[in-house]
Amino acid sequence: MITDEQLNEYRLSGEKVRVIRDAIASNDIRGIVVAWDDTHVLIRRPNRHVVKLDRNYIYQPSHDPRMWTEE
């Protein structure tokens, strides 16, 4: 699970993140961290829609190569 400190860094920098939900790359969500609580994170996508995602997904900077490991 991503920490509050990491989420706060992404929010303050305005850096675009990639949220990896499964093994299929086309299912990734890219956007900017807006807010979070104990179980969810709000991501603002480029089309200005806000998506509520589980905090247990993989969060990484959008410009980094996609990281996926089978669990």
Describe the structure.
The protein has 71 residues and is mainly beta. It has one domain (4-60): Roll (SH3 type barrels), CATH 2.30.30. It contains 1 helix and 5 strands, in the order H-E-E-E-E-E. The protein has one helix spanning 4-13, and strands at 16-20, 29-36, 40-44, 50-54, 58-61. A 5-stranded antiparallel beta sheet has the order 4-3-2-1-5. Strand 2 and strand 3 form a beta hairpin. The mean pLDDT is 94.
Task: Describe the SSE topology.
Elements: H1 4-13, E1 16-20, E2 29-36, E3 40-44, E4 50-54, E5 58-61
Antiparallel strand pairs: 1-2, 1-5, 2-3, 3-4
Protein name: DUF2642 domain-containing protein
CATH architecture annotation: Roll
Give the mean pLDDT: 94
Q: In which range does the helix fraction lie? A: 10-25%
**CATH topology name:** SH3 type barrels
Order of helices and strands: HEEEEE
Domain module tally: 1
Strand order of the largest sheet: 4-3-2-1-5
Identify low-pLDDT runs: none
Protein name: DUF2642 domain-containing protein
Organism: Fontibacillus solani
Task: Write a brief caption for the model.
The protein has 71 residues and is mainly beta.
Key terms:
single chain, 71 residues, mainly beta, SH3 type barrels, five-stranded antiparallel β-sheet, globular
